[in-house]
Q: What sequence folds into this?
């Protein structure tokens, strides 16, 4: 019964995020700067119902939202929106950032609500606090990767705007290219570090659960590839001066890799993380 | 030295490792994928698969060149970290002690090498494990004691540098806690273990699936578990032998799952047994598997001749050819995966140090960015 309410709430969140995306897109296309208040209201409303759906799920299954694909998708989308709202509050209103965030959050929730997740008891190997550490860092890692991608996307857009001489207030109000580049780098760096901790804590959990802390399972290996790829990005930037345009494209590439790691497991491989498969 | 610690080498190794891993995710690795997947892949790509196989691309993670790549990565990481440490140390020495902002800046600078030291420890721990790890498998019935050492395991395998030796303690399985939920197979709640030195209990611990126990660097991880029927065999020639007859509760129980075979007098007699913890549950009349009325359904074979067929309840004794077999009690058993991974403390320490580095990097921020 609770699941029905969750689906309704999630569809409301999808509608809010979808409208937000359209508003953000319209701002870019028509170079306006009028919909900020609407975007803000829709953000909080969407986030509120999204949180309520997540809380209902938690209540229904009696554990955190990390067991099956549905729970992981909904909670990862939630953490991405939380990151975005935190950034807006702590730093400055930046509705255009949502142009990159909303479609991803929307797709994640959309994919989740198409599932009909069964409630199964947690396996005994899940009864460890290492799982919580692993999951927490995974959420932070994917949130940071998403924001790094969003800033990289904004950088590339602003760069294009400057090249073509678009002079609308909208573009002027965006942070400068240098700042966007730095933000991309910071979130990529943060993502790299928490991704590293996610992998390390996951391996400690695997050691306790299966007696081996690294088994070259597809999800482990793809996570390691993503991590190395972020490592390469950071080293290229710090040591070899790949800043700005190149760094932005690296962030986009890395995020594609993260997305691939995230979804390839579901559709391409059999894995010890079979609970994450729909 | 300059080449080993070069950033170009670091970057090349990072990219190379990522590429190699990606290839290993495209070409199924025979040791890490179910064999039917691997065979299906061989059949699906008849042109490409043999080439990849001949090049060893279907066993990348166990190849020597991949191991070498990891070692090179570890050496490069260590050298770069050493250089970083030396550089930051020099900067620390030259900093003016009264300047607080500068202090924050220095601490911020330290956090990056600290993070890399953590990574070094993790990689080092992985390499130590690769060489010296050991994995054994041991079945224990309630009340049984096991001495960790050569020849004591049901199965054992170790890394290339592992040498089997006595760890100097004994492990006793005191009790297995089981739960019998209605309509479900028995749930394992924990194995109560006692660790003994010189016959004296020095520590008692409970091993569960999520939380295995470790004593003196040896980890005991519960694996399979089930009922054990304790039978006493009294041969016609005298003497007595107590046997733990194990029956698994792993899968949904049916008559086949709860069966096992015993060899008596070096194979002279073959005893096929089916264990029923509760008569009604197998008739579909009860929904729990708690051993309320346990009995064994036995078939004793000598050569090819069946010499006994029938049920035996707990406490009963049967006779055949002057031998006696008594079903004395019902207990539980657990099999343990016993692991020695000497690199694990390094990995754990590395994890802690790397986390410390990250915390430092993001909290000890100088007023102005040092570098980006």
A:
């Amino acid at each position: 019964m609770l699941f029905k309410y969750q689906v309704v709430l999630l569809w409301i969140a999808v509608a809010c995020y979808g409208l937000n995306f359209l508003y953000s897109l319209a701002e870019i296309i028509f170079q306006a700067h009028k919909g900020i208040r609407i975007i803000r209201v829709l953000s909080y409303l969407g986030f509120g119902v999204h949180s309520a759906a997540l809380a209902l799920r938690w209540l229904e299954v009696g554990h955190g939202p990390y067991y099956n694909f549905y729970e992981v998708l909904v909670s990862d989308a939630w953490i991405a929106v939380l990151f975005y709202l935190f950034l807006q509050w702590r730093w400055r209103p930046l509705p255009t950032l949502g142009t990159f965030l909303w479609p991803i959050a929307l797709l994640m929730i959309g994919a989740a609500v198409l599932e009909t997740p069964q409630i199964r008891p947690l396996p005994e190997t899940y009864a460890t606090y290492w799982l919580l550490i692993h999951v927490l860092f995974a959420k932070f890692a994917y949130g940071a990767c998403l924001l790094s991608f969003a800033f990289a996307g904004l950088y590339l857009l602003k760069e294009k705007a400057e090249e073509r001489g678009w002079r609308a207030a909208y573009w002027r109000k965006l942070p400068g290219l240098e700042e966007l580049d730095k933000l991309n780098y910071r979130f990529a760096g943060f993502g790299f570090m928490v991704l590293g901790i996610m992998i390390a804590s996951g391996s400690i959990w695997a050691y306790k659960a299966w007696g081996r802390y690294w088994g070259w399972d597809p999800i482990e290996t793809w996570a390691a590839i993503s991590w190395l790829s972020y490592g390469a990005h950071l080293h290229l930037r710090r040591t070899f001066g790949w800043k700005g345009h190149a760094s932005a494209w690296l962030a986009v590439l890395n995020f594609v890799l993260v997305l691939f790691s995230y979804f390839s497991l579901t559709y391409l491989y059999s894995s010890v993380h079979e609970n994450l498969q729909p | 030295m300059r080449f080993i610690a070069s950033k170009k080498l670091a970057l090349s190794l990072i990219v190379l490792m990522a590429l190699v891993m990606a290839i290993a995710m495209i070409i199924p690795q025979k040791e890490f994928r179910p064999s039917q997947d691997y065979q299906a892949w061989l059949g699906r790509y008849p042109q490409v698969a043999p080439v990849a196989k001949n090049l060893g691309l279907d066993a990348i993670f166990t190849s020597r060149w991949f191991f070498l790549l990891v070692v090179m990565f570890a050496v490069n990481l260590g050298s770069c970290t050493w250089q970083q440490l030396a550089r930051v140390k020099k900067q620390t020495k030259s900093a003016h002690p009264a300047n607080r902002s500068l202090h924050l800046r220095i601490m911020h600078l330290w956090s990056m090498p600290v993070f890399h030291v953590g990574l070094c420890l993790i990689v080092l721990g992985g390499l130590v494990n690769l060489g010296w790890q050991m994995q054994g498998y041991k079945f224990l019935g309630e009340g049984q004691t096991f001495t960790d050492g050569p020849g004591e395991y049901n199965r054992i395998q170790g890394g290339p540098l592992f040498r089997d030796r006595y760890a100097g303690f004994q492990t006793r399985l005191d009790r297995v806690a089981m739960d019998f939920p209605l309509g479900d197979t028995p749930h394992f709640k924990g194995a109560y273990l006692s660790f003994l030195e010189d016959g004296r209990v020095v520590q008692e611990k409970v091993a569960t699936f999520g939380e295995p126990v470790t004593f003196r660097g040896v980890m005991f991880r519960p694996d399979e578990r089930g009922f054990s029927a304790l039978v006493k065999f009294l041969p016609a020639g005298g003497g007595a032998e107590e046997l733990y007859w194990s029956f698994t509760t792993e899968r949904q129980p049916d008559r086949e799952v709860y069966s096992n075979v015993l060899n008596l007098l070096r194979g002279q007699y073959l005893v096929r047994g089916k264990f029923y913890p509760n008569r009604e549950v197998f008739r579909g009349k009860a929904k729990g598997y708690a051993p309320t009325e346990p009995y064994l359904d036995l078939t004793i074979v000598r050569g090819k001749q069946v010499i006994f067929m029938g049920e035996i309840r707990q406490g009963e004794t049967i006779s055949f050819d002057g031998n006696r077999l008594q079903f004395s009690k019902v207990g539980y058993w657990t099999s343990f995966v016993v692991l020695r991974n000497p690199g694990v403390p390094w990995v754990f320490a590395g994890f802690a140090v790397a986390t410390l580095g990250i915390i430092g990097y993001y909290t000890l921020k100088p007023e102005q960015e040092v570098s980006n």
Notes: Chain A has nine helices and no strands.
